[in-house]
Amino acid sequence: MKLARTMIAVAGLSIALAASAQPKPNPMDVVPDKMPNDIPFGAPIPLANAQAAINAALAESQRRGWKLNIAVVDWAGRLVAFARQDGAQIGSIAIAEHKARASALYRRETKAFETGVQNGLNYLLTLDDVIASRGGIPLVYNGQLIGAIGCSGGTGSQDEVVCKAGADTVK
Question: Which of 8, 65, 80, 126 is the most buried (most CB within 10 A)?
Fold first, then answer.
């Protein structure tokens, strides 16, 4: 009787282990019908528009009492305009530009990378020029990508709020 119970328990455990050993489907194997983030390129953002985005971001940052670095790049990720507020942390200068560059080159908000990494898509960290931190937003005019804005120096959510204020001037 004990032997029969033991054999049944072993058989049940074997079935449970075999079921758990089945590989889960990889969500990366799904082939979408359309290209994601397929925003066409427009003319590169003019300096006047880049400066207007910087000024709007600065105004939002100052209104809230935050000290940030703000960068605007063209759609190729080249710096067009930059502002560093008095007292903003020096380490965030390069990060603001990096966020803007990643947003422009990948045609999406850097928040998408942050969310992906938080959800286990660690392969994103292997892609060139990715930064998995919110605060980089594409600048789209007439449905075309003309550049991106990046902010750094606060929390990711603070950087994002200030970037949105700058991005809203381009619409």
Answer: 80
